[in-house]
Design a protein that fits this description.
Blueprint: E1 2-7, H1 15-28, E2 32-36, H2 40-45, E3 48-51, H3 53-57, H4 80-90, E4 95-100, H5 102-113, E5 118-122, H6 138-159, E6 162-167, H7 174-182, E7 187-189, H8 197-211, E8 214-219, H9 248-260, E9 264-268, H10 280-298, E10 304-309, E11 312-317, H11 318-321, H12 330-333, H13 335-338
Parallel strand pairs: 1-2, 1-4, 4-5, 5-10, 6-8, 6-9, 7-8
Antiparallel strand pairs: 2-3, 10-11
The protein binds 6-O-phosphono-beta-D-fructofuranose (F6P).
Length: 340
């Protein structure tokens, strides 16, 4: 087979481990693997290059994706899908593995419906794809964010300040909740729980009264009740229509300082969370999913996605993954109250 692979959307540590496993498993059965460069842009523009396990082996421990990524949406223009199908055919591609979140794999599913042979694989630090227990990138980003919270605690204590740490994750609070727990945040604020600024200020004051500092883990997707997000501009949307988040932490810090009179600072962790080397767990999960994706290509399981269920890689129809964003649910919500 000639298998094409692409990484789309936000990058993360672990992408190179996925790619290595795909190529290694493919080579073992005599298949060739071609990278579509910079995500869907590579398929649209017909930019493919052969990749080998030999070149990828040294990159497994390195963050980012060695084949590039972009937020290109092949369905943005009416001629996009046709171009993609033509280019895949011209390259003689028998199967395409799409690695990314709901946008990247959603486009893959639509192209599958038009006749392309597509297998999906979940990768996003947001960990917000339905059905799968795990998305590649989450564990490494979690480690970065929880380390940051630990570091912020010592400086907050030294200065007797409130520190607001804004964490990525879009409209799902997984990264904030888990890093908040591991990084011992005093307050965890996620999009799944309505923010009430009055009661928050009271909580801040009471924690401050007991320990002289407060660290708040805040999801970038938190939107205060009755207020529009201060920094999101409707015009700043990507090709998939997502607004660019980031900045709610600065707004919250000002509000807290005004309401409590306590000196407050904010930090936006931003893209730091997408960088760095993958954790060992990340690499193993990535490799399990990579191997599974190639097996699915061999078995003709197109229009399906490799996911993690009960810590094992399995395949399910892609449409089940796009039922909606996986948000923090009742099983976890009470944790925001316990760990504070
Ligand atoms: O989806 C991954 C993610 O890192 C989100 O957590 C974040 O909101 C977004 O991507 C940022 O995207 P960009 O890199 O395009 O600014």
């Amino acid at each position: 087979m000639r298998i094409a692979v692409l990484t789309g959307g936000g990058d993360s540590p672990g992408c190179n481990a996925v790619l290595y496993a795909i190529v290694l498993r493919a080579e073992a059965n005599g298949h060739d693997v071609f990278a579509a460069e910079f995500g869907w842009r590579g398929v649209l523009e017909g930019k493919f290059r052969r990749i080998t396990s030999r070149e990828l082996k040294d990159l497994v421990n390195i963050g980012g994706t060695c084949i590039g990524t972009s937020r290109t949406n092949p369905f943005k223009t009416p001629e996009g899908p046709g171009k993609c199908l033509d280019n895949l055919q011209k390259q003689g591609i028998d199967a395409l593995i799409t690695i990314g979140g709901d946008d990247t794999n959603g486009a893959g599913f639509k192209l599958f419906q038009l006749g392309a042979k597509v297998v999906g694989l979940p990768q996003t630090i947001d960990n917000d794809l339905s059905e799968t227990e795990y998305c590649i990138g989450f564990d490494s980003a979690l480690t970065t964010a929880s380390d940051a919270l630990e570091k912020l605690r010592t400086t907050s204590r030294s200065h007797r300040r409130v520190m607001v740490c804004e964490i990525m994750g879009r409209n799902a609070g997984w990264l904030t909740l888990f890093s908040g727990i591991a990084g011992l945040a005093d307050i965890i604020l996620i999009p799944e729980v309505k923010l009430d600024i009055t009661s928050l200020s009271e909580r801040v004051s009471s924690i401050y009264f007991k320990q002289d500092y407060v660290v708040i883990a805040l999801s970038e997707g938190v939107i205060p009740d009755n207020l529009s997000h201060p920094l999101v501009q409707e015009t700043e949307v990507d090709e998939f229509g997502h607004v660019r988040l980031g900045g709610v932490g600065n707004w919250l810090a000002q509000e807290i300082e005004q309401r409590t009179g306590i000196e407050t600072r904010a930090i936006v962790l931003g893209h730091l969370q997408r960088g760095g080397n993958p954790s060992a767990f990340e690499k193993v999960m990535g490799m399990l999913l990579g191997v599974k994706a190639v097996e699915m290509c061999e078995d003709g399981k197109f229009g399906e996605m490799a996911i993690i269920k009960n810590m094992k890689p399995i395949s399910i129809p892609m449409e089940e993954v796009f039922k909606g964003v996986k948000r923090v649910n009742e099983d976890y919500l009470h944790l925001t109250q316990i760990f504070m």
